[in-house]
Amino acid sequence: MNPFRFDRLPTDDSFFDREVEVKRIAKAISDGENLLVYGLRRMGKTSCLLRAARLAAAEHDAVCFFADLSLYSSLADVTEALLKSALPELGSLGDRAAQFIAGAVSGLVLKPHVKAKFDGSASGGSELELEIGAELRGKDAAAHSKALTEVLDALDKLAKKRKRPVAIIFDEFTFVEAIGPDRVSWQLRGAMQRHQNIVYIMAGSVRHMIDRLHGEHGPFYGMFGRLVIERIDPDLMAKWIDESCERHGVKATGVGAACIRWAGSRTRDIVQLARRTFDIALETKVATEATVADAIKALLEDFDEEFWRLWSPLSSMNRSILQAVALGYGASLFHGEIIARFNLDSTGHVSQACRTLERNREGSAGYRPPILGRIERGNKVEIVFDNPFFQSWVAGVTQPRRIAAFTFRFGDRGGPSSKPTES
Ligand SMILES: Nc1ncnc2c1ncn2[C@@H]1O[C@H](COP(=O)(O)OP(=O)(O)O)[C@@H](O)[C@H]1O
Ligand SMILES: [Mg+2]
User: Which residue's CA is minimally distant from atom 23 of ligand 1?
Assistant: First the structure.
């Protein structure tokens, strides 16, 4: 079995490190301290939150409600997701907890619940599930926001009655601004200030939004402690990858280090590459740096169609910028020589195009991450790819013969490994 997993909550065996972060979040839940969890995309925030919720439930008898706001298009959906997510169940807040909430919030309906919960736990007494009724669902964003607030009010009352820690975890909370009505964050602030018995954990990765919402003039200013999810120590992570391979019957030499050198700082990217490497190594039971290079090629082939879809609609100006960044000129993009070499027109145009490529793209399938990001150090700016796989693909597509060299040499001459880590 492959020890490296992604796309779902890692098991104890496939989850590495983060004891400090997970304990910190669980402690905030049990102590009633509102906490802002910040970290770049794919660094491992959601995994930490879900593990902390489990830990807080196991050790402090906490009830945690969780919703990832980037997944929904209305606060009605968020409210419903929140109510369905309680770990452990809503019913453990009392036999009539669901009825109590339904009674307190007009527009919520009770439905008998049929399936087992996703964590497989036994029903905590309630056979009923709460849903947003059709009438409420048909109303506007302001009505949905009001219903969410009322649900939170009701949970605060329940928490007080039951004397149990109750946490509301809003993952990717900055999306509330996109799906809620005007001033929704200020409404939420009002509710949070009223609630003496529930704790709010908010996680986010969109830096400028977090700065705005939690900054000096923002609605959440001064109400939250902070936890930053940084990269996992690369040496420890490399060692863990090698040891995980060995534990599962694959002899690994320098595999972890190669995965990190190539995939950069984000946990998910590293784990994804390690997973593919392990799959390839299963045949011979041996993995080396060359296996990692094969895994990169295989992953790029998998992503080919998706990346073409990303690439084809881009203007030639945007393509040239991506090409320059992919080839290692992200820090010198605004230099005259690079502008001339890649036909980038002018500093102003480059700057404008980068801003566009750094924005979250709206798509019919909902949230999609931006193509580029930036690292700022003092007055120095470096433009970087958000996704190391797309970077490699762009380098390969624009210089077809380069790709083999690129992957086999692990990025000397400006490949991803020469990229400084985000701070
Ligand atoms: N500490 C970890 N150990 C192993 N895998 C991890 C760890 N943290 C994250 N991952 C993997 O990376 C993927 C992305 O992590 P996630 O928590 O969703 O990141 P974020 O919420 O910051 O975008 C997860 O599906 C998981 O498989
Ligand atoms: Mg997440």
Answer: 42
